[in-house]
Amino acid sequence: MGPGALSDVLSSLRLPAHPDLLIGLDVSDDAAVYRLPDGSALVQTVDFFPPIVDDPYTFGAIAAANALSDVYAMGGRPILALAVAGFPEDLPSEVIRAILQGGADKVAEAGAVVAGGHTVVDKEPKYGLCVTGLVDPARVTPKANAQPGDVLLLTKALGTGLITTAAKQERASAEHLAAAVASMLMLNRRAAEIAARFVVHSATDITGFGLLGHAAEIARNSTVGLHIESRALPVLPGALEYAAAGIAPGGLHRNRAYLETNGYTRYAATFDQARKPLLFDPQTSGGLLIVLTPDEAARLEAAFAETDQACWRIGAVTQGAGIVVS
C-alpha cells in the first residue's frame, strides 16, 4: 500500500495498549518492540512481496534481506524467521524450493535461522519473512528522537525501483541490473553492528516509501524538519538514465503525490529536477538512514571507512517541520 492509503487505514484502528509494548502501531516505525521479563526486548517484523527479479533463488534472498533489514533499523539482532509465501498451484516445485532456499541462506548469513512458516495458494508468487530479533531497550533506534543539528547518513545507493522497473520492461542493461541486485542482496548487518558502537538518535531503512517517505516519518515522529542535499545522494548506475527516459515504478508516483500534495516537501531554487525521482523511488532492501550528532557522525564515518562500509552524508535535521530539498 502507498503511504497515504496505509495512513488512512491505520488511523481508524483501535488497538489495546500494553505496558511492555515499547513500540507498536501508535507510531510509524520499522518493527514492534516488546519488553521481556529479563529486561531485554523482542523486535518483531514481517515483510513479503512478489518477484522483483527473474531468478527464484535470488528473489528469495532479496526478499529475506529486505525483511531482516527492519530488525537492523531498530538496533536489533535477528535470531529467528518464519517464511510467509503464496505460490500458484502450477508453479514447479524446483522453483519454490529455490525461493525458499535463497531466503534460508540469507537468514543464515544474518546469523539467524528459518524455523518454519506458512504458505497459501496465490495466482502470483509472493515470499517474505516474519522476523524475530533481540534488542537492548536502552539501545533501540526508533523513527524518533532526531534533534536539530543532527546529521543524516545513508548506507546504500538509491535507484533499485527505477532499475528493476526498467528490467521488467526489458530496457535495463545487464550491468545496471547486476549492480542493483548486488545492492539488494547485501545485508544491513555490518552497517548496523558498526553503528551500534555509537550514540544513534534515530534510524530507519529505506524501502517502499522511498527516501523522503521514510525520512518524513523520522521528521514527524521527532517534530523536527529535515534538509536533504540532492547532489549528495548516492545513485546506482543507470537509475537516473532510466528516470530521464520516463521509466518509473507506480509506487514512485504514489510516494511523491503523498508528500507533495500536502506541502510537506519543498524544493530550493538550486534543486536539480533530474534527481527528483531518487527522492521517491521505492527501494527494495535499501540502506539504513542513520541520525546522530555531527561528532558521532564523524566518528561513525571513520569507522565505516576502516571497514569499507559505504556511507554518505546527505543532509541534516533542522528546526521546524517538513523537508526541504536543495
Which terms summarize this structure?
326 residues, alpha+beta, 60s Ribosomal Protein L30, Chain: A
Describe this structure in words.
The chain has helices at residues 3-11, 56-73, 93-109, 160-168, 174-185, 189-195, 210-222, 239-244, 250-261, 276-280, 294-306; strands at residues 21-23, 32-35, 41-49, 77-87, 113-121, 126-135, 151-154, 202-205, 225-228, 265-267, 288-292, 312-318, 322-325. With 326 residues, the chain is an alpha+beta fold. The chain has 2 domains: 16-139, 60s Ribosomal Protein L30, Chain: A (2-Layer Sandwich); 151-325, PurM-like C-terminal domain (Phosphoribosyl-aminoimidazole Synthetase, Chain A, domain 2), CATH 3.90.650.10. Strands 8-11-7-12-9-13-10 form a 7-stranded mixed beta sheet, with helices on both faces. The mean pLDDT is 93.
CATH superfamily of the largest domain: PurM-like C-terminal domain
Helix/strand class: alpha+beta
The level-1 CATH class of the largest domain: Alpha Beta
**Backbone CA Rg:** 19 Å
Q: Total domains, how many?
A: 2
Q: How many β-strand stretches?
A: 13
Strand content: 15-25%
Could you report the average pLDDT, rounded to the nearest whole number? 93
Q: How would you characterize the largest beta sheet?
A: 7 strands, mixed
